[in-house]
Amino acid sequence: MGNRAVVVFHMKDEESKEEYISPAVYLHWNGGPESVYAFLDELDRRKVRTTLSDPSYEFARFVHVIGDFMDDKVVVSPFSIGDYGAGGLSLGVWGPPEKIETEYLKDSQYNQGDNGIYVVTRGGPAGRIVRRWIGYGESFRELPTKEVEKERKAAYKHDYMVGKNSIPATFLKIRPKISSLG
């Protein structure tokens, strides 16, 4: 009954071959591309430290961004009595995955279904590269770059990304100085 996803920040130093993998962010709600890309854009608006050798800063601020957004909403759980904000149901943090590889991610706790796994790396023409894995069992796979780009373009046309009730508009409302000034 969620809209789950897992987001991990990753960097691989091509010279030393050393890999840096952040802890994983679990989203029970708002794990679709239209939300995840909006949260990543908010990191950019806040001018979050994005050192290539240490994705832990970006990870920490990503958790904060999602917490800000979720705390502005009220989620009524069908499994509990009462209303809950972000602290109740929407956001979790796990240790980092050992590897960013299809075979490892496929049968791990990081594969929560719904919207799959987003692995975010700084760099590329857009300032970030997002790799995606989706599916279960034998259908679990990494999406080709063209599919990820098509998904990203569609996300930017979604109601969550445009208009007065969009995720970006919510951030401008709840954190106007941070979101507008960085």
Annotate the secondary structure layout.
Layout: E1 5-12, E2 19-21, E3 24-27, H1 33-45, H2 56-71, E4 75-76, E5 83-84, H3 86-89, E6 91-94, H4 102-106, E7 117-122, E8 128-134, E9 141-142, H5 145-155, H6 167-174, H7 176-181
Parallel strand pairs: 1-7
Antiparallel strand pairs: 1-2, 1-3, 3-6, 4-5, 7-8, 8-9
Helix pairs in contact: 1-2, 1-5
Describe this structure in words.
The protein has 182 residues and is α+β, with helices and mostly antiparallel strands. It has one domain (5-181). It is 35% helix and 21% strand. The chain is built from 7 helices and 9 strands. It has helices at 33-45, 56-71, 86-89, 102-106, 145-155, 167-174, 176-181; strands at residues 5-12, 19-21, 24-27, 75-76, 83-84, 91-94, 117-122, 128-134, 141-142. Strands 1, 2, 3, 6, 7, 8 and 9 form a 7-stranded mixed β-sheet that branches. A hairpin with a 5-residue loop joins strand 7 (117-122) and strand 8 (128-134). Helix 1 (33-45) packs across helix 2 (56-71) and helix 1 crosses helix 5.
Outline:
The chain is an alpha+beta fold and 182 residues long. The chain has 7 helices and 9 strands; from the N terminus they run βββααββαβαβββααα.
Q: Describe the sheet with the most strands.
A: 7 strands, mixed
Q: Tally of extended strands?
A: 9
Provide the domain count: 1
Helix and strand sequence: EEEHHEEHEHEEEHHH
Structural class: alpha+beta
Q: What's the helix count?
A: 7
Residue share in helix: 25-40%
Tag the structure with descriptive keywords.
21% strand; 182 residues; 35% helix; 7-stranded mixed beta sheet
